[in-house]
């Protein structure tokens, strides 16, 4: 065992913890005490009353049921994943490092030590990538690319993960990367500091029946707002933003329809037996759902519960939300999710011409057709997607000033969610469906209508 590597690992671990433990200023939202937060959360059946992670306390004021679902999701990822706990923690550290999220780095190291990882291996994982442990190298490289440039993941790299670990663990690695990119943005976007007690173990808490929304639900769409003439672009223009023309983006969608997925897409009949009854009541043709729930339902179901609970807990403008998500898909080059944005804009009530007009304008650097508060939200979405570490409390306060506290938190959570969705799509290289598969659930007569 090399003592220098041990010292390096311990030094990096201590630096990550100390950096995350000290606040650089106040968080973007008020943080209740643990006791106050438990009172705001839904009724607990078992496991309540202890120290809560700061991200749950940050969300609980505006989205209490969603905060509860996040606790369930975090427990699933950290305690139920089919990925070996040591490897899972190592991958999570790489994700956090590339998102520059000291908080999550400290958690990953704590989980690694809890799983029994020795200090020499920790030093190798947290050191230069050229010295990554040979047994971990492909998985860590996948985690790195999944975070910094997901569309560039080589098919051969994923194939090696499948060969070495099997289809289910490889699929779980995709969902781990998705979750890490979601969670890091919650922490960074709200400027959250480490809990005074240091990293917490996963919290096994059971909430009362009815806490979560499991049935697909689509909030009603407010009256559609026409695009404006004669407006002004009020946000700083991004020089590279309009380098890809609308026509180029549309051609990429067509290419995604012909994409060969990295794992076989299971049929609904294959997926259904592994789902809870409330998830198995109606078939789905959405490839994203079939792959995630087909291979790793123990991780995919808690995620879907969290997103559906958030939708049920808010009253969003669906056209605005999907426009925000479209901006994220453009920023991160996720063709599959961009296609889904167009489908969901149609579900919200836009016809094909209106969808094309809206997305063509979003693809350019002249956003004057949108109200100033929407333009600023689109710019925030772009920043959260590309450089989450650069966000400040003032950025979030700007959302609150434009949208109001409740809508700001719902919008922020939605945007963090977007960086989960794109990582799943690009991690699996999903083929885009050719027809609007969301109409099965959310069309005029679908069961997802409120």
Short descriptors:
21 helices; 2 strands; AhpD-like; 450 residues; 59% helix; mainly alpha; disordered N terminus; two-stranded antiparallel sheet
Task: State the domain count.
Answer: 2
Q: What's the SSE pattern?
A: HHEHHHHHHHHEHHHHHHHHHHH
Name the overall outline. Answer: globular
Mean pLDDT: 92
User: Regions with pLDDT < 50 over 5+ consecutive residues?
Assistant: 1-23
Cα(first) to Cα(last) distance is 61 Å
Order of strands, main sheet, comes to 1-2
CATH architectural label of the largest domain: Up-down Bundle
Name of the CATH homologous superfamily of the largest domain: AhpD-like
Q: How is this structure best described in words?
A:
- With 450 residues, the protein is mainly α.
- The chain has 2 domains: 3-207, AhpD-like; 241-442, AhpD-like, CATH 1.20.1290.
- It is 59% helix and 1% strand.
- The protein contains 21 helices and 2 strands.
- The protein has a two-stranded antiparallel sheet with strand order 1-2.
- Helix 3 packs antiparallel against helix 4 and helix 5 packs antiparallel against helix 6 (102-114).
- The termini are far apart.
